[in-house]
Amino acid sequence: MKHTLRQVFRSGKFVFGFCIFAAILLVVTIYPLIIPDSPLAIIGQGTFFPPGIYVNVYDSLSSPPYTLNLDEAAAKRIASRLNEEDRTAIQEWLVAAGLPEAEIDPADTRKLLDQWLNNYDPKKNIPGMTNARRNYFIRLNNSLQGLLSTEGAIIAVRNPETASLEEKSAVNQSDYVNINQVANVRLLPLGTDNFGRDVLTELVKATAVSLQIGMVAGLIATLIGLTFGLLAGYVGGLVDDFITFLTNLFIVIPTFVLLILISFSIGQEQRGAFVIATVIGLTAWPWTARAVRSQVISLRNRDHVNLSKLSGHSLFHIILTDILPYIASYVVMALILQISSGILTEAGLSIIGLGPKTTEVPTLGLMMNWAMIYQAQILGKWWAYLPVLVTIALITFSMNLMNTGLDQVFNPALRE
Amino acid sequence: MKGYRKYFLNKLGWYGVTLVCAFILNFILPRLMPGDPVSAIVSRLAQGMTNTAGVQAIYQQYAELFGTNRPMLEQFFLYIRNVAQGDFGFSFSQYPRTVADVIRSSILWTVALQFPAIIVGWLIGNTLGALAAYLKGGFDKLLMPVSIFISNFPAFGMAVILMVIFGVNLKWFPTSGGYGFDLIPSFTWDFIWSVIVHYQLPFWSIVLIAIGGQAIGMRSMSIYELNADYVKYARFMGIKDRKIVGYVFRNAMLPQITGLALSIGTMVGGALVAEIIFSYPGLGSTILTAVLGQDYPLISATTLIITMMVLSANFLIEILYGFIDPRIKATQSD
């Protein structure tokens, strides 16, 4: 056993896959200890907040201000407020007003703004321009003028008696707060999803649940497949015929169809994560059964098995001590593949809306489903679906690497 | 020829039995659940539909059509009779369309998308796998990790990635639908071009997924064959490399054909999900609308159709295999 393990861990592929998988497991276990938030708690009002650090505006007003004189501050401020559409509009106006097109660069904020301030004249009549468009330019000009002012903003509170606004303090353009001194700062490394939930917290929980689903499904499938394979291979005869028939039947009938029918019949209310895992396990066994059967058949007439038979050992005993140890490595590999395909199956099922019910726990498939329903991919909200995809790919990839590594260790024909 | 006929009849019988079993499962699985399906459906319908007259009509029609108050066996024969006549009843979610009508409008899209995609993916995958085994070195080192990664990537993931890159960011192809939403299906160039453009992303996402798995399988088969004794013997005989490679790949191909037959069900499952991602108007999207609309007759009929399609594809492949593999003829004529 010790020797086998050492051999396994000498395989580069296995070790690499194992490291990825162990890292995922580690994150999944440790993260909830550090951040014990509920994964389905809705914290954001609105959909798809982009990733970043969220600083409470109210609290930052009462934090002590620091004055920093930074040269680029004003330019950056204006650049961030001028969006792409406004820039092209400015360019369009300037060109229409007769400026040479080569001199205008919409990306150079400072130069563009200078040109705008020097040339813009609201009274100037540009042929072919609609009134609405002209008003748009007037509004744009006003907002630019506001941006360019060097005065700060005044914070006022409403006096409860007179209902008038009273100046409380002023914020200068060069005021800064130290983020460590603001009482409420929330880091959302992956933003929020369509319901306003923290994607990272949700993702960690979903990964844990999906791994559990894969584990349960894989164990069930392997257990059934192993039992059937052993019986068919070792007992033979009518049992073999029957099991082989059943196996071939369920290999040919698309598993996906069975899953759809079963999950739909179970109904939304009854579909917990573990019900889905069980259903996936119950439909995934034929491959394992078929493979185990052929392995057992090649073992059945070995000398040590015959010897055991002659010694009068029971069927159970022979299978347990004379056959199982020889196919153990194979079964482990099959289990790994079953777990990874279980995770994929759950995700596929969830996308068509037949996954676990949505109110209890997130799964990777459900997160994907939500992102797809709210069209995160079309709206460019990558943080809602990409981390999920990467996680799924990492899990299945690491498991397949482990499987390939094991294969090379236990199957001498494949060694390089 | 006698051997082939025996093989053919054998396979035909086996697939006939499988079809019957699939048919029974399709009938029994939804009915295994507690409560009768009609009342369950009506309670679901009450939440979603506003057209009460429609609900009532469907309820009547459905209860009559499937005779849920009659014994199970009689229901089963009723079901067979209805299916044989292509009568799957009304669709709940798209009333007053019939299920047959809904399926008729989507099945062609699915067949036209998945059949070529799986074949193309299989061909490219096998070629790449064979090349990797033969060339070894850098090509192999590059292709293998990529193939392993791709084949482990979920089908919907590939669809989403392709859509984001080529549809949303580069805007080369449209992101959803089977043709432009401003067009009416007709035989005009506009429409055909629109169909071709919409076809690309779903097609290639299915192809890519198929490539990965097939390349890995073909590579290990080819390596196994390249190390076989007959190859060494042929080399000693001085037979040209090209000729040997031809033999090797013909032999390595055979298990790949069976492999295609066995994995076609899984591939179709993945491709259906890819269809959903692209809102392609095929059976995948039909399943989605059926699930969302709790449309029981539509789901039942769609799954039956998909099963039949997969089974017939399998049957065709096995028949083809019988002609290609000389061993089949040898064993059957004994």
What does this structure look like?
The complex is a heterodimer of chains A (416) and B (334). Chain A is mainly alpha-helical. Chain A has helices spanning 2-8, 12-34, 57-62, 73-81, 84-96, 109-119, 131-148, 199-235, 237-252, 255-266, 273-284, 286-300, 303-310, 315-351, 364-373, 376-379, 382-410, and strands spanning 52-55, 66-67, 153-158, 165-171, 175-176, 185-188. In chain A, helix 8 runs parallel beside helix 12 (286-300), helix 11 packs across helix 14 (315-351) and helix 15 (364-373) runs antiparallel to helix 17. Chain B is mainly α. The radius of gyration of chain B is 24 Å and the shape is globular.
Please summarize what this structure is.
Chain A has 416 residues and is mainly α.
Helix content of chain A: 55-70%
The residue ranges of chain B in which pLDDT falls below 50 over 5 or more consecutive positions are none
Order of helices and strands of chain A: HHEHEHHHHEEEEHHHHHHHHHH
Q: Could you give the order of strands across the largest sheet of chain A? A: 1-6
Q: Provide the CATH top-level class of the largest domain in chain A.
A: Mainly Alpha
The amount of helix of chain B comes to over 70%
Radius of gyration of chain B, CA atoms, in whole angstroms: 24 Å
Number of domains of chain A: 3
